[in-house]
């Protein structure tokens, strides 16, 4: 199987994305994770631009990489400056990475109007910089910035910039669609013209401003590129870069080109979620291949089909890239959805006269009232068990009272009193919190601790969302509240619906604790 080199630039280009800010320590952890995945090159950052990247490369010197070649990133020398005296190039060499990546101008527009030098001097800047780095024994990867725009505007000059880099000793020439505005057929046509004229390895670096970064990367490989640059989850400036979580499985599974071992490919979903967590970015459920919804099925006809043969509605097996098949419950669901979920949860249907058809009908009724079980699978499991007589609530609410106190220049405080019953016993407790839900949560924990030998301190509420069901009713509209909880073993979501936000919150909160106790 032919191999393609994967060049990951999450730590540099990805870190330029909005709301993403990695510390030097974050970058080192991510780099080690990428190395363990078998990436061929990892671009660590631009040491000539900020102290954080300087610190990262200092840390990286003490952390050996087993698979990847670490690359420091920078630009060609400044105009009218000797390469050996250029501070940017000095910083690249001081990083002591086995590879260095520098970018230069391919578009005459940039040469004349951005860096404002002559076309001849720009060619010298490219040649001198590459030659100097090459003379120091480094692998030199040359990023031809704005190459496709430059080629379309002035193909002769854009080609000369590539020839200058090759003459200087570049090991890889990477053609960049920096503005992300080139279409796939243009990429393919230009690559087919230029690749035969480049005597070294060719790579592709595509941005996603037209939503085509992955497509442009794939057609570039078809046209001769053997290195692909991109980021995990497509993070990057503006609309981001080519998403390696889509590029890699497409290359390997669809095009038959080797990128990484099958074992590492099975960890791709895990890697995507890990990078999201470190970046403090909410994972995009609809992300191809690795998203939570990538293999989720909601429509009854779809579920009926995948129960017979999964490939009827799935283009591949989710386990290959470490994802999983999910069946969702909603008012679009049929008995097949219920059968599948019951089998998945180990629940036997038919109890109390509720077979899958009756359960599906009840779900449709509840969803019409505002419930949304595809986003609250904890509540769905409790409902399924309750309808079939396999679950009885472990505690019952008798009453609660919530008070909010606001003093001038001080934050609000909330106080909750709650009475619950467990069997024939009752317990009344009170607690305070930062808000009414927090106060109810604290009071309920205190009460439950009197009855159950469960360490509820290890259960945390990690997300709280409120949605208006029908906005035309204004402040009297029904709302649904989602609560996401987790402990050391699992994550689950529950839902509550009411015209009163506190009552809806209580229903979701109670469901969360009922789920936790039922799994203890």
In short:
By secondary structure, this protein is of the alpha/beta class.
Low-confidence stretches: none
Helix content: 25-40%
Give the rounded overall mean pLDDT.
90
Put simply, the count of helices is 18
Describe the protein in words:
The protein is elongated and about 90 Å long. With 520 residues, the chain is of the alpha/beta class. 38% of the residues lie in helices and 20% in strands. The strands form four sheets. An eight-stranded parallel beta barrel has the order 1-2-3-4-5-6-7-8, surrounded by eight helices. The chain has a three-stranded antiparallel β-sheet with strand order 11-12-13. A three-stranded antiparallel β-sheet has the order 14-15-16. The chain contains 18 helices and 16 strands. It folds into two domains: 5-260, Aldolase class I (TIM Barrel), CATH 3.20.20.70; 396-518, 2-Layer Sandwich (Double Stranded RNA Binding Domain), CATH 3.30.160.
């Amino acid at each position: 199987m032919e191999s393609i080199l994967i060049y990951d630039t999450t730590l540099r280009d990805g870190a330029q994305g909005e709301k993403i800010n990695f510390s030097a320590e974050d970058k080192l952890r991510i780099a080690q994770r990428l190395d363990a995945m078998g990436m061929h090159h990892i671009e660590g950052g631009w040491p000539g631009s900020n102290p954080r990247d300087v610190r990262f490369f200092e840390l990286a010197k003490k952390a050996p990489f087993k698979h990847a070649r670490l690359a420091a990133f920078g630009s060609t020398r400044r105009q009218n400056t000797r390469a050996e005296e250029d501070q940017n190039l000095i910083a690249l060499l001081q990083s002591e990475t086995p590879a260095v990546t520098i970018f230069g101008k391919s578009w005459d527009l940039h040469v004349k109007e951005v860096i404002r030098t002559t076309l001849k001097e720009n060619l010298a800047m490219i040649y001198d910089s590459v030659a100097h780095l090459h003379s120091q024994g480094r692998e030199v990867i040359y990023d031809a910035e704005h190459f496709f725009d430059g080629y379309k505007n002035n193909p002769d000059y854009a080609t000369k910039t590539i020839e200058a880099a090759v003459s200087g000793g570049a090991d890889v020439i990477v053609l960049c669609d920096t503005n992300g505005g080139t279409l796939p057929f243009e990429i393919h046509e230009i690559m087919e013209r230029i690749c035969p004229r480049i005597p070294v390895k060719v790579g592709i670096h595509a941005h996603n401003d037209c939503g085509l970064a992955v497509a442009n990367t794939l057609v570039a490989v078809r046209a001769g590129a053997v290195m692909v640059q991109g980021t995990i989850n497509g993070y990057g400036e503006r609309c981001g870069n080519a998403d390696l979580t889509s590029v890699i499985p497409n290359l390997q599974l669809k095009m038959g080109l080797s990128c990484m071992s099958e074992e590492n490919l099975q960890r791709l979903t895990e890697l995507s979620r890990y990078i999201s967590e470190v970046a403090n970015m909410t994972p995009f459920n609809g992300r191809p291949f690795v998203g939570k919804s990538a293999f989720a099925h909601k429509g009854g006809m779809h579920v009926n089909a995948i129960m017979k043969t999964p490939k009827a509605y799935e283009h591949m097996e989710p386990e290959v890239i470490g994802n999983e098949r999910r069946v969702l419950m909603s008012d679009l669901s049929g008995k097949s959805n219920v059968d599948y979920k019951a089998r998945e949860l180990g629940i036997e249907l038919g109890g109390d006269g509720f077979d899958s058809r009756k359960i599906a009908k009840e779900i449709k009724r509840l969803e019409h009232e505002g419930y949304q079980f595809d986003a609250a699978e904890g509540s769905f499991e409790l409902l399924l068990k309750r309808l079939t007589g396999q679950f009885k609530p472990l505690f019952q609410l008798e009453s609660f009272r919530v008070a909010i106190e606001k003093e001038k220049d001080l934050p609000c405080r909330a106080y909750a009193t709650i009475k619950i019953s467990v069997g024939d016993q009752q317990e009344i407790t009170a607690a305070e919190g930062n808000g009414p839900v927090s106060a109810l949560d604290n009071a309920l924990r205190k009460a439950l601790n009197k009855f159950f030998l469960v360490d509820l301190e290890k259960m945390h509420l990690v997300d709280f969302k409120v949605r208006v069901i029908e906005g035309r009713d204004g402040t009297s509209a029904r709302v649904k509240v989602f609560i996401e909880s987790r402990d050391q073993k699992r994550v689950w979501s529950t839902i509550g619906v009411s015209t009163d936000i506190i009552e809806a919150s209580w229903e979701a909160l109670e469901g969360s604790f009922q789920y936790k106790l039922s799994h203890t």
